[in-house]
Design goal:
Residues 61-94 are annotated as: Disordered. Belongs to the TonB-dependent receptor family. The protein is built from 7 helices and 33 strands. It has a single domain, classed as TonB-dependent receptor, beta-barrel domain (Maltoporin, Chain A), CATH 2.40.170.20. By secondary structure, the chain is mainly beta.
């Protein structure tokens, strides 16, 4: 039985490095099998082993090479099979797959839409790629980020690169890259018909959440057609002991996608068409909730190998219609109540990548990409309201952000133990927007916004940023059990549309802008410059030199100095104690250390294999102008887990530790949070085509606040005060899946 994978996207050595960095502790022989492939293997066993694989697009220049600096730096990691199972069982959010990866944290008020943080760099500072596409949030609160457009069961590969990032892994970002990808199409052997699939049902007790997902593939040796779908729903969750219900945390979402694949010889074409509908999603740390989000997309991919090397081409189109208002927890909405806000976004683009061997020991990568984002953001008038009427508020009027990027990357293997990587990248970002308008040009309640709109419309709003990135890395295999990797990167990011063009200065209008969950109001700044981060990092990797891979330890210290870091200045203070803030360029620095390790405790026929794994992350950030802490810096945190596999049964005991958050951004009123420790249990059993997964999150029902969660604005009307956002209390989770 053979499964189809994309060898350029998931090379075998990537999983060996992920095993050392992310601590899955799998053997070298097992390292070539991902969790998704294990599931596929079970499916193939049930379908008569009629699946074939495309020939590998192998461009290695030295048979002794095991890893590539470009495709698998030591800063890259992927979740192991045990962690993936627990994440999928606990949450419908794809960002949860990375929860135990070095340098990773996340934040957000919605349970489908957490925003990623790598080495203290959050959201837009991370290049988040889904099926080769950079999806920009179509919302002033970033309620619909890239990872919200794919369900966890559809993810085949998930990789995070924290810190030094090859230029081929994305530009217009500072902190690193998050890359998730669906599985490539599967095909039957010639003369055979393949019918295979899976179904899965999940229940989570906290919030009464339940969901279902599934896929089915029908294929011959040339053509493959696959349908995938998912459904997830939950009510509000409860915090730990004594914290009660956390309001505005409910959700409902549907995902549908059809993938058609064609292959011949060394060439593969895959086209995916899909739609996501999210009729509602509460956001506990925002004034608004999502009342509808519909995304329709087309994504095409071609990969092929030639005598001169390999080539990959992608193209995509996506339309997002997004609506915000207040769900029942915040008072609900009707023709005369609430506050309707609408967005219409269109995205389109392409990416090209050629990988060319230059002799036996050198490889050249050349790439080009273009991303277009068009955005309309308008707020219809509310019937009978003097503040929100009588006209439509135009927040972003026919705005666009176009990015054209090119790169060249050279990897050289000077000896079997020494290799280098040098890459250059240029990104041209062009932005503009049309005239804007307040709810009223004459009303006293809208005078502040009317004056701001006139000033905004009087200016030339077109902006062009010309950015350059450089990455220089070297790897030295000092001994068979110790590898040293390090280097320097210059990374740049241009402002997003809201950072430049949000213009309202009234209390209500400015408070609708912001993806920080802090209750403040935000105003854009057309004069913002691009951020430029200079990062130096070194990774020390100790590992078992034998094929058993019984132990490993990776330590990565890093330092970044960011010119023109987009932070804020205070303009005024509202009557509710929150502030009107304007985006502004400051210099800033971040520094920290990530560590991960694994050790095999036992490996016997009677007791199976037992492993202990661990991850430790620490980061600090400081604004060099205000001398405050940077926002959304995760305090010292770590995870220790013991994982055992015996026959068809696997089990995992996990402890998460978080130190108190004492260093905060006082400009934004970021809350301090206490430290905590959470105990999680999980296990699974496979019998023929069925797999039962069960787990308990927060076994001791520990009460705690999320260090990056911001303020729980949805609870204020119920408890009479504004508190930090509580984390989830105890939850009993179970799922049953079947493959055929």
């Amino acid at each position: 039985m053979i499964t189809l994978i994309n060898p350029r996207r998931v090379p075998a050595w990537a999983w060996v490095i992920a095993a050392a960095c992310a601590a899955p502790s799998i053997s070298a022989a097992q390292a070539q099998t991902t969790a998704a492939q294990i599931s596929a293997s079970q499916s193939n066993a049930a379908s008569g082993s009629s699946v074939v694989t495309l020939p590998r697009l192998d461009i290695s220049t030295d048979e002794e090479e095991e890893t590539s600096l470009s495709d698998a730096p030591l800063t890259a990691s992927s979740p192991d099979a045990s962690s993936q199972r627990m994440s999928r069982l606990s949450s419908p959010d794809v960002s949860s797959l990375f929860r135990n990866q070095p340098g990773f944290s996340s934040y957000g008020g919605g349970r489908l839409a957490n925003l990623p943080v790598l080495n203290g760099m959050a959201d837009d500072r991370v290049a988040t790629i889904v099926d080769g596409v950079r999806i920009s949030p179509a919302c002033p609160n970033h309620m619909n980020p890239a990872l919200s457009y794919i369900d966890p069961d559809s993810v085949q590969t998930a990789t995070s690169i924290a810190g030094l990032t090859p230029v081929s892994s994305g530009g217009d970002s500072l902190g690193g890259t998050i890359d998730v990808e669906r599985a490539d199409p599967r095909f039957a052997r010639k003369g055979k018909i393949l019918v295979t699939g899976r179904v899965r049902g999940t229940y989570r007790s906290n919030g009464g959440a339940y969901g279902a997902s599934g896929s089915v593939t029908v294929a011959n040796h040339l053509l493959s057609i696959r349908y995938t779908g998912s459904y997830d729903q939950s009510g509000n969750y409860r915090g730990g002991a004594g914290m009660g219900t956390v309001h505005s945390t409910n959700y409902l979402t549907y995902n549908h996608a059809v993938t058609v694949g064609l292959h011949k010889d060394n060439h593969l074409v895959a086209i995916t068409v899909g739609q996501q509908d999210t009729p509602r999603e509460g956001f506990a740390n925002q004034y608004m909730d999502m009342t509808n989000n519909r995304s329709t997309f087309v994504n095409g991919k071609y990969t092929g190998s030639f005598d001169w090397g390999t080539f990959e081409a992608r193209g995509y189109w996506q339309r997002i219609t997004h609506a915000m208002d207040m769900l029942a927890d915040k008072g609900g909405h009707s023709a005369t109540t609430g506050m309707p806000m609408n967005n219409d976004s269109r995205l389109a683009g392409y990416s090209l990548k050629a990988t060319i061997p230059l002799g036996r020991f050198h490889t050249l990568k050349l790439g080009s990409g273009f991303d277009h984002v068009g955005l309309n953001d308008w707020w219809p008038p509310l019937q009978g309201s003097m503040m929100m009427g009588p006209d439509t508020y135009h927040n972003i009027n026919n705005g666009h952000r176009d990015r054209l990027g090119h790169y060249a990357e050279w990897e050289a293997h000077w000896t079997p133990r020494v290799s280098t990587l040098l890459g250059f990248r240029n990104d041209l970002i062009m932005m503009n927007t049309g005239d804007v308008a307040p709810y009223s040009w004459t009303g006293m309640m809208n005078m502040t916004d009317a004056m701001a709109a006139r000033a905004f419309n009087a200016r030339n709003r077109g902006r062009t940023d010309v950015n350059f990135d450089v990455t220089a890395m070297a790897r030295w295999k000092v001994t068979d059990s110790f590898t040293l990797e390090g280097g320097y990167a210059r990374k740049s990011r241009a402002p997003n549309l809201y950072e430049r063009y949000a213009w309202g200065r009234g209390t209500m209008s400015s408070s609708m802008i912001g993806w920080f969950g802090d209750g403040n109001g935000y105003v854009g700044n057309m004069d913002l410059k691009s951020e430029i981060a200079n990062t130096a990092s070194v990774t020390l990797d100790w590992h078992d030199p034998t094929a058993a891979n019984r132990w490993g330890l990776t330590v990565q210290p890093y330092y970044s100095y960011v010119h023109n870091y987009i932070n804020v200045v205070q303009l005024s203070t509202f009557s509710n104690g929150h502030h009107l803030l304007q985006f502004a360029n400051h210099n800033a620095q971040t520094y920290g250390i990530n560590a991960s390790g694994h050790y095999t405790l036992w490996d016997t026929a009677q007791y199976g294999k037992g492993e202990v794994t661990g991850v430790l992350n620490w980061v600090r950030g400081q604004d060099e102008v205000t001398h405050s802490g940077l926002y959304h810096m995760m305090p010292l945190n770590g995870t220790v887990a013991v994982h055992e596999t015996v026959g068809h049964w696997t089990g995992r005991v996990e402890m998460n530790f978080v130190k108190p958050k004492d260093t905060v951004d006082w400009l934004r009123g970021e809350p301090r949070t206490a430290g905590y420790a959470l105990l999680n249990l999980g296990g699974s059993y496979t019998w023929k085509m069925l797999t039962l997964d069960a787990g308990i999150d927060n076994v001791l029902n520990q009460p705690y606040y999320l260090p990056l969660g911001g303020l729980s604005l949805g609870d204020t009307r119920y408890i009479g005060t504004t508190r930090a956002l509580p984390g989830m209390g105890r939850s009993f989770n179970v799922s049953l899946s079947a493959t055929f």
